[in-house]
Amino acid sequence: MTILEELQWRGLIADCTDLDALGARLRAGPTTLYCGFDPTGDSLHVGHLMGQLTLRRFQLAGHHPLPLAGGATGMVGDPGGKSAERNLLSREELAHNVSCIKQQLSRLLDFEAPGNPARLLDNADWTAPLTYLDFLRDIGKHFSINVMVAKDSVRSRLEGEHGLSYTEFSYMLLQAHDFYHLRQAHGCELQIGGSDQWGNITAGTDLIRKKLGATAWGLTFPLITKADGTKFGKTEGGAIWLDPRKTSPYRFYQFFINTDDQMLGGYLRKFTLLPREAIEALEARHQADPGAREAHKALAREVTTLVHGEAALADARRASEIMFGGGLDGVSEAVFKDVVGEVPTVDFDASRLGAPDLSLPELLVHSGLSPSKGQARKDIEGGGIYLNNVRASEVGRRVTAADLLFGQYLLLRKGKRTYAVIRAR
RNA sequence: GGUGGGUUACUCAAGUGGCCAACGAGGGCGGACUGUAAAUCCGCCGGCUAACGCCUUCGAUGGUUCGAAUCCAUCACCCACCA
Q1: Nucleotide nearest to A254 (CA to C1')
Q2: How confident is the prediction along chain A (425 residues), in pLDDT tens digits per residue?
Q3: Nearest-CA neighbor of A97 among A125, A133, A62, A73?
Q4: What is the ipTM for the molecules in this complex?
């Protein structure tokens, strides 16, 4: 199976500037490709795994991957996919974000691979020194406003009520310039990205053709949606981040464990490096015995290992076992402590335990499980609250030192799977 | 510029003087069932309170009234038709 056939099978090809010609080029020998990641936040999230993993797949096929941090493009903001102008990030925020993202980008790829090591780049390195006048003369001259205005990302904003600033309008020129620069400096012939990047990518291939008379390709993967059509990677608690301080490996693991059956096959293909045979075998096993949820476990295991490593996976699984594997009976203090920190954990003043004014609703609010005491009361009355995995149905339930696990912890749970740990201090 | 219509809780949307913390739907959260699913059924969804109840909400401000989301005035924004 060629790399393109594999991507096709995995459902990772949404669009290509010229699939046949690209296929021919890839068969001829290794090439160099890039994928950009803008530092809009201090961490990437699961959605960004698509780009990183696709780079990795190309690397495994012998090509040279260039992960790119958008230190320059992040200063301007991509107008695509948004309905309103974005606020510019401060230079400090941006610098912080870039350094965070660079760290994450260096995890999934092999920077030591003999022959085709990955190289981490930052487009600020070649964009910052450019002068405005040179840019207008050398790059801007090649762009037709008529064409730019016709791009989806721009058109939707012009038709929308918020419009579009000159700054964001210029974004695609910067990205096109990146591709052009990489073509020259690194022989980069292919840019990959989400399908929302199509306009920006083709702006680059056009620029390369006009300025260099050379060919370059663009390849996009489809944006993932959930079974219910909502945005992938967002949960009630917010996005699923790659940064373990923002999304614990336990929650990360749980996110994939909870994958909707309909999406299983697609996620296994898109988010794991498992070979086709392994994935098809998992799907067959899932068909035969859906209740065993082997495919869910394999998916969660693979992705968690890729992003957080073996050790974190082990902790996440152990925590999951405690949470969902039955009661707390027989759980040792050492094992329980693995849960602490994986699950949202808050500290609490131990001297207040047993005080007459300390009620369960108060702890629920303190732990963040309930938004207000009134709601906490309703949650308790509805039978959805558990203290140390025992249903607590009395609103007036007092919490005392006798409830502490291992003399220090309270395990609160709302519903089937939302846990919080309170640590008495 | 003229005339008419609208602005209600997370969203859509009822409500035109007291029975309204406000119908209904979607969505969310819980419960039962299950596989930590889906579908289905049930409960809850402004705040505070153990509870009686109290407090704050219906675009904004002021007014009429014993009493207003509901009536009046002014302002803001949106929509429709006419110019």
Answers
A1: B36
A2: 899 999 999 999 999 999 999 999 999 999 999 999 999 889 999 989 999 999 999 999 999 999 999 999 998 888 866 656 777 888 899 999 999 999 999 999 999 999 999 999 999 999 999 999 999 999 999 999 998 988 887 887 776 656 778 898 999 999 999 999 999 999 999 999 998 899 999 999 999 999 999 999 999 998 776 655 456 666 655 678 899 988 889 989 999 998 888 889 999 999 999 999 999 999 999 999 999 999 999 999 999 999 999 999 998 998 888 888 766 767 788 878 877 878 888 998 888 877 766 789 999 999 989 989 999 999 998 899 999 888 988 888 888 888 898 989 999 999 988 899 999 88
A3: A73
A4: 0.82
A42 is catalytic: no
Q: Is the CB of A122 under 7 A from strand B?
A: no
Instruction: Measure Cα distances from A73 to A283, A373, A375 in Å.
Output: 40, 45, 44
The single residue of A2, A225, A235, A400 carrying the catalytic annotation is A235
Q: What residue ranges define each of the domains in chain A, with the CATH number in brackets? A: 3-221 (3.40.50.620), 234-308 (1.10.240.10), 345-424 (3.10.290.10)
Nucleotide nearest to A325 (CA to C1'): B36
Strand B footprint nucleotides (protein C-beta < 7 Å): 28-32, 34-38, 43-51
Q: Which of residues 23-62 of A touch strand B (CB under 7 A)?
A: none
Which is nearest to A303 in space by CA: A249, A355, A263, A364?
A249
**The model scores a pTM over 0.90:** no
Using alpha carbons only, how large is chain A's radius of gyration in Å?
25
Question: Nearest nucleotide by C1' from A292 CA?
Answer: B35
